[in-house]
Amino acid sequence: MNGLITVVRSLFELPAGPGPRFWIAVRASLSIGVPFIVLTLLGHERIGLQTAAGAFVALFAAGRPAAERAKVLPFVAAALLACTALGSALAPSTLWLSIGLVAVSAVAALLSLAYRLGPPGPTFFVLSYGLAANITAVVGGERLNSPLTLLGAMTGGALFSYLLALAPLLRASERAKLVRPVRELLPGPWLGTEEWQLVLRMCIVALVGTLVTVLWIDPHRAYWTVSAGIAVIGLSAVRRHSFARGVHRTAGTLVGAALYLAIAPLGSHALLLALILTLLQFMIELVVVRNYALALVFITPLVLLITGAASGSANLTGTAAERVLDTAIGSGIAVATALIHRSATRRSA
Known about the structure:
Layout: H1 2-10, H2 22-41, H3 45-51, H4 66-90, H5 94-114, H6 123-135, E1 138-139, E2 142-143, H7 147-166, H8 172-175, H9 182-185, H10 193-216, H11 222-233, H12 239-263, H13 270-287, H14 292-311, H15 316-337, H16 344-348
Antiparallel strand pairs: 1-2
């Protein structure tokens, strides 16, 4: 009971973070906002919107020195683009799309943990795969958007994010910092017992989450169920950690879905949508290391706005309700897989 009270209380707490986040949040928000705004002003708002997914690059290695990010982020960008290309290629086939989702989840989990990539882990690789499949889905025999256009837009967005990550190198103090080699920044491949357990749990979430969503709900929503479950597992092999993240994920998504309903009508104006996405990305990076539920309040409408605007979905209430259900399913599966880990009592015995 005390553990449950602690978890519930944590939903409303905002503890001090590991370090200043303001400029990290500024760079992340500019990564998503500037390409979208510029392309919208040039009359290519749909392409500008698709560059937003490339800004996921900015979420990785955020707290590292710029010169170290310069070495790590090309690997991240390449992996995100590969997931996007695969999601677009498999979008026409429900069977292959589902198989691909399980495969991408397993490989992303394995590599992220084996090379100690760190937060946010494999979640956004799975999310990129699913977003690409939905943005380029086949409806009435035709693609909603061109896969090549999406891949090009994401590449541009990722490149802009990368250049922004290097911006601190304009300062002499930043250039003077010690820079570790890639083999130290991404050590491995190596997996210990706990890492193997985390990989196994993520694979179970991917397989069960995909089967449940494909067979009884909607194949094109499986990516959200799986990415939610993988995010709940996170990078810690502690049972209570998964339970707490499951509560945070579900509560944050519920409130985030309500926020989405409130601001989605504003998304019909491209420039206003760009500003909203910019603000949401800023808030995500500002609070994500301090309160996971609060971060989900902003992550949920961000992803829904990108997907909805790119695919032309007009059913706002239905979309919000679906995401809450998918999150609850993914979180439930993830929390159940925590039984794979030994309890803290047994571990200390």
